[in-house]
Amino acid sequence: MLESGIPKERIFTENISGATEDRPELNKLLNLLHKGDVVTVWKVDRLGRRTAHLARLLEEFNEKGITVKSLTEGVDTSDRSSRVSYLLMSVIAQNERETINERIRCGIDHAQKYGTKSGRPIGRPKVSSVKVQHALDLLASGKSYRHASSIAGVSLATLVRRVQAMQQKNQFTRQTSIFETIRQDAI
Question: How many CB atoms lie within 10 A of CB 167?
Answer without folding.
Answer: 12
